[in-house]
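[stage:ingest] chain + small molecule (S-adenosylmethionine)
[stage:ingest] validated
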Amino acid sequence: MKDTDHLKSHDEFASTYDSQVKEYNSYSNEVLFGMCFEYIEPGESLLDLGLGTGLSSVHFARFGLEVTGLDGSEAMLNECRKKSFAKELKRHNIQQVPLPYLDRTFSHIICCGVFHFFGNLLLIIKDSFRILQPGGIFAFTFAAQTAKEKESFSENLPDYIETPSAWGISIFKHSDEYIHSIAEELGLTILKEQKVLIDSGDNDTEDILFKVIVMQKNVS
Ligand SMILES: C[S@@+](CC[C@H](N)C(=O)[O-])C[C@H]1O[C@@H](n2cnc3c(N)ncnc32)[C@H](O)[C@@H]1O
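[stage:predict] done
[stage:export] tokens:
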């Protein structure tokens, strides 16, 4: 599947996305906000990567942060515009770096429910680090590898594995070691991690293990 095909599929789901999130009891956006709460202040700026209809960043906006959002789907952005909480919304494929911002632009960055669509995460995390202010947090979700999946690799655990899903697209599950090694390479301190199970959307398929992770850009 080409990048653009994958983004078209998000266009198709835009108008029903919020109701699907409720139907599948998929509240990782609220988990992410709760985990960030102690590090944010009203008046700070927030970039939401792949903000969709804005379900994650709307919590930050309600708390008084100024939200900017990027998404590759115009239909998703249009749904978000109807909610009128964001300062700026822009169409951008976030796999294309550099992101359209100067170094150290944002107080904080979030990315909820997006990285499982990507294999390699180094470039996007590295560029997010560039535009994040020192001391700022970068919080995101990723699909994690289960103990059973890890067992199937006797050694040389891969950075990510691509697996089919009941959602009709394949998803990438990243190893903790991969995510942690990127954080260490860049100078991001891991503050919090939380496992969450996401409904597979199909009674015959096991729920999917995700992680919410909060990192902080070192000040020096
Ligand atoms: C599952 S939704 C999550 C939306 C939102 N972050 C939330 O927490 O509800 C995934 C979003 O990521 C966007 N997305 C996926 N791949 C992208 C890419 N390469 N560039 C920009 N946006 C992308 C989709 O258009 C969609 O809006």
